[in-house]
Amino acid sequence: MRKSWWKILCIVIIFYVIFMGLMGPVPRLAIINESIRNTYFHVALWLAMTTLLFASMIFSIRYLNKGRIGDDDIASELAKSAIFFGILGCLTGSVWANYTWGDPWPNDPKLNGAAVGILIYLAYLLLRSSFEDEQRRARISSVYNIFAFAVFIPIIYILPRLTDSLHPGSGGNSTFGSYDFNSDIRRVFYPAIIGYILLGLWLAELRIRIKVINRVRDEALITSDKIS
Amino acid sequence: MSSGILNEIKTLIWKEVTLEWRQKYALSGMLLYVISTVFVCYLSFNLRRNQLTPIVWNTLFWIIILFTAVNAIAKSFSQERYGRLLYYYSLCSPQAIIISKIIYNSLIMLLLSGMGFVFYSFVMGNAIGDMGLFILCLFLAAIGFASVLTLVAGIASKADNSATLMAVLSFPIILPMLLMTIKLAKNAMDGLDWSVSTDEISTLLSIDLIVITLSYLLFPYLWRS
């Protein structure tokens, strides 16, 4: 039971979000109607993904400074769970767009930016897989990871705001915050972000443990080969 | 200290230029690449000249420039032998190397995109309203492409399948820059007032700055491996 409180918290929050997200009170708006509940899933997933990618970049910087291979493991697994959230965010957004904008993939700068962002991180995974040597892979992919995050933020958050986007908060559209009179949304939205971040950390943690176990096992195999 | 780095940069750029001049096939190969690509596009559109709208003209030009840039800069690290790289490693600071490579690649890109533009407008026609703005756009794009691709080339040259990796790594990263450039170039073609495009110019400039600073900071780690 070592430090498992945050996993319990994660489960509680996720169930709270699912329950309140589907049943709780929401503001009534034209066109969007009940689909505003997707804020708890789609928007929160994107924010969780950005947080995880930011954490991944921090660990990459730490690896370059200290040179511990464990930091690179953490960075890569955080990026992987972030990509998973990104794909989920794309799917939930696609469902939402289908019902409010009438097209599962409207030609919108933010959507295209999101697709490019996911491509950048898939390229990161490809880069990782093309090295045999562990230290070399860690160093070079850390450099790329930092570079990728610096490009990712303009693609997702800055460029769509300069152009006309269907998304709220850009091109003169207002955000949902201005409709949220009773802060019904906020009461579920903020926990949702925390819940997804915890879930992402949990996913990453499991994979990091597998990696560490594999590494220890490989080393044990090598040493036993030498002895025999 | 700073004058030492400046001296190193100057020497390194000079070294690149003499190296390029000695093996002329690389540069002339790239020039021929641009010209033949433009010519292929010209012949392909020959069937329907009237369908070459300004938007198609603009997009086609920048895609040609993008592919030229990727091909020209991909070899900036793989060209030199391992032993020689080790020799530079012992002589100069990595910052001097990356800055000199970026400056040199920017010069190459300016030359290539300038030549490409002249030939492109020669065969495909030229419908640009504001020449000054278009040249500024060409200038910013050449520097931006060169600086992004130099770092990516450095990363890709460390791996085995560097040609594929170069394209996969660089295309998504270069995309925001490409889109901004295409938009700015479209404004220039329509001859819009410069005040309309200040947003694009400042975004392009800031992306260039971010990329160059990051290259400067990150390259030493890449160089050590």
Please give a structural write-up.
- The complex is a heterodimer of chains A (228) and B (225).
- Chain A is mainly alpha-helical and 228 residues long.
- In chain A, 75% of the residues lie in helices and 0% in strands.
- Chain A is globular.
- Chain B is mostly helical and 225 residues long.
- In chain B, α1 packs across α5, α3 packs antiparallel against α5 and α5 packs across α8.
- Chain B is globular.
- Chain B starts with a helix and ends with a helix.
- At the A-B interface, α4 and α5 of A face α7 and α8 of B.
- Chain B: This is Heme exporter protein CcmB.
- Chain B: Belongs to the CcmB/CycW/HelB family.
- Chain B: InterPro entries: Cyt_c_biogenesis_CcmB.
Q: Class by helix and strand content of chain B?
A: mainly alpha
Profile the largest sheet of chain A.
none
Span between termini of chain B: 25 Å
Strand content range of chain B: under 5%
Poorly predicted tracts of residues of chain B: none
- Biggest chain pair interface: A-B, 28 and 27 residues
Please state the CA-atom Rg of chain B, rounded to the nearest Å: 18 Å
Structural class of chain A: mainly alpha
Shape of chain A: globular
Average pLDDT number of chain A: 81
Number of strands of chain B: 0
Count of alpha/pi helices of chain A: 6
Number of strands of chain A: 0
Descriptive tags:
heterodimer, A: about 230 residues, mainly alpha, 6 helices, about 75% helix, B: about 220 residues, 8 helices
Structure described in brief:
The complex is a heterodimer of chains A (228) and B (225). Helix content of chain A is 75%, strand content 0%. Chain A is built from six helices and no strands.
List the helices and strands and how they pair.
The complex is a heterodimer of chains A (228) and B (225).
Chain A: H1 5-23, H2 42-66, H3 69-100, H4 109-129, H5 134-162, H6 184-227
Helix pairs in contact in A: 1-6, 2-3, 2-5, 2-6, 3-4, 3-5, 3-6, 4-5
Chain B: H1 2-22, H2 24-44, H3 54-78, H4 82-91, H5 94-124, H6 131-157, H7 162-190, H8 198-224
Helix pairs in contact in B: 1-5, 2-3, 2-5, 3-5, 3-6, 3-7, 5-6, 5-8, 6-7, 6-8, 7-8
Family (chain B): Belongs to the CcmB/CycW/HelB family.
Organism (chain B): Dyadobacter chenwenxiniae
Membrane topology (chain B): Multi-pass membrane protein
